[in-house]
Structures are given as C-alpha cells and as structure tokens.
Design a protein that fits this description.
mainly alpha, Rna Polymerase Sigma Factor, Chain: A, Arc Repressor Mutant, subunit A, 0% strand, elongated
Length: 200
C-alpha cells in the first residue's frame, strides 16, 4: 500500500510485528544497502556481506512478534548485522587455522594412514560421499585436495570468498567422515585421523 511510505520507521516495524509484508519490504528497502555497505566494510567480501544482511532480515521476519518493543529500528538492525559480522570474523579466523593445519597434516601424514585411505574400498566410499555434495562443494574439494590449489586460487576460480572456500572444505571433510562411519567405523576413524590428527 502506498500509504506505508508515510509511516515512521517505528510504525513500520510495528506493522512488521503484525505480519505486514509490505512494511517489511519497506524496511528492507530502507536499510538493505546501508547494512550491506556496513558489513562489507568489515568483512572485505561482498558475498559474505550479502549473506550476513540476508540472514539479518530473515531473523527480523522470523522474530517479528518481538519487534514492538524495539524503539530504534536502525540501531536494532545495525546491532544484528554487527554481531553477526563479528561472529563470522571469529569463525573465519578459527577455521582458517583449522584448515591450514588439516592440509598441512594431510601433506605429512603417516604412510600407513595414507595407504589405508588409498585402498580401493576407501576411495569408492569417499567418491560416494563426494557425489552427495553439491557440484560447487565437489569442485572446491577436488581443486584443493587433488589439484593442490590454495584457498585464494580456488576462491578466484570459483568466484567465492576465501572464507566460503574454508567453510566448504570443513563441511566436506565432516560429511565424508560421517559417510564413512555409516559403512565402516574403522575407515571413518582412519580418515578422521588422516585429516584432523593435529586438531583433536
């Protein structure tokens, strides 16, 4: 409704609290670009900033019933994005260290573990696990594991942020381990040791 253009931001938020989708869209239009710029300035990644802002508005809509107590819509939205951005930066820093250690460990893994992983049955199960992942995750995993490319190179090739590449590699390792566990606890544990020995 055109009249929503004349509501104050507080009034718009109250309408959102009642499930008014047009008011929600108006709030989105008012703050989307500003929040994106704010997040991108901290993250230095347009892809990550966009994801953070989308998550922000998803949270706002899912928790809309609590919006009536919010006095300053702008501060409320910026706080959500700021906290999510800080959490993301902390997670990325932890996972960067984790990924570096994982691949360093794989490169210098014990021969017996390497031989066990390279057995045909293990390779088939790993291939099955990879096939269950999205094309994007499969490609990132193979570029890293089989082609030996750096995260920066993979990010450039795939058009992803470096932190997203890190996340995909962590998710892929965990998925493969879980798949191996379902078929052979022994192989699953060998893969886990092979990939995470220095991290546990």
């Amino acid at each position: 409704m055109p009249e929503t253009l004349y509501h104050t931001e507080k009034e718009l938020l109250n309408l959102v609290a009642k499930g008014n989708e047009l008011a929600f869209r108006r709030i989105f239009d008012l703050y989307n670009k500003r929040l994106f710029t704010f997040a991108e300035g901290m993250l230095k990644s347009a892809a990550d900033a966009e994801e953070i802002v989308q998550d922000c508005f998803t949270k706002v809509w899912l928790n809309r019933e609590s919006l009536q107590v919010v006095e300053n819509p702008g501060s409320y939205l910026y706080k959500i994005v700021r906290n999510s951005t800080i959490d993301h930066l902390r997670k990325t820093a932890r996972e960067q260290n984790l990924i570096n250690q994982v691949w360093a460990n794989i490169s210098h893994s014990d021969n017996s573990l390497e031989e066990e992983i390279l057995k045909n049955d293990s390779q088939q199960l790993i291939a099955q696990a990879l096939a269950q992942l999205s094309e994007q995750k499969q490609q990132v995993f193979r570029l890293s594991r089989e082609s030996g490319l750096s995260h920066e190179a993979i990010a450039s090739i795939m058009g992803l942020s470096k932190s997203r590449v890190n996340n995909i590699l962590v998710e892929s390792i965990r998925h493969i381990k879980n798949h191996l566990d379902k078929h052979s606890y022994h192989i699953g544990m060998v893969f886990w040791l092979w990939a995470w020995e220095q991290l546990l």
